[in-house]
Amino acid sequence: MQLHQSLLVCALFTGAVQLVTAASWGFDDATISVQGKGAGVSGGSKEKLVENKALSRPIQLGASDTLKVLLTVQENKKPKRPHQAFLHITEPTTGLETSYALAMKENGKGKVELTHKDIPSQLLTSSTPLSVSLVIGSFGSSKAYNGPAFDLSIKSNSGVSSVSHEKPLRYGKLPEIHHIFRPDPTSPPKVISIFFTAAVIAALPSLFITWLSLGANLNHLSKAIGSSPLSHALFFGSILAMEGIFFMYYTSWNLFQTLPAAIAVGSVTFLSGSRALTEVQERRLSGLR
Fold this sequence. Notes:
six-stranded antiparallel beta sheet, 38% helix
């Protein structure tokens, strides 16, 4: 009986160990190569990567070199495409970091290539080797992989000036904005105003002379005022009031002061003018000229 219980405990323990061991991501057949420009297929250096163990020597990446990482991702030692696979680069002094996604295939094979232009300028100017790790994970209960891969030493050309970078945009409080509006439009020079005013006043005698020469008859003035005194008085007064409104707008009023007064006086002019013109028409029909 005790032997049976011992065998059962051992079997359960072995199964649990196998289950925990199986639920994890990893990689195999991983290599890293650095090829210079024009070096050919067989040129450059090549190293083999192992899980959870970084290379002993830093990888040198020159300004014209291309770094390439090839590997086969595995889940439970079986090739499989993960949901995420990244090459993670960290600057150990400042803590700045960046990641590069591996191009994955359905059979688990992945690849990523890097050159100087792909690495941020803040990392290119690092005086210490960058720490590079592999991050692999996916949906499900399998444990993700996050382990060191190698150190990357950036080499720059001696004849090229150091890479400069602009300060990144930060969202926050900005200086107060003071709006500057254009000054209010000013009236034309007084000389021009006086000239045109004098021209209008000088034209009034010519107007009266023209009326008299065309046969203007003032004899009916008393009859017109007697027939419709209010209409004629309001019509003539509203015309003078409208001229006064234009004068005030020209000298001191603004548009919001002028419009209500002009609408009110214009309404009086329309109503009184209609009645005054009706009275004039009645006299014309009676034969009075």
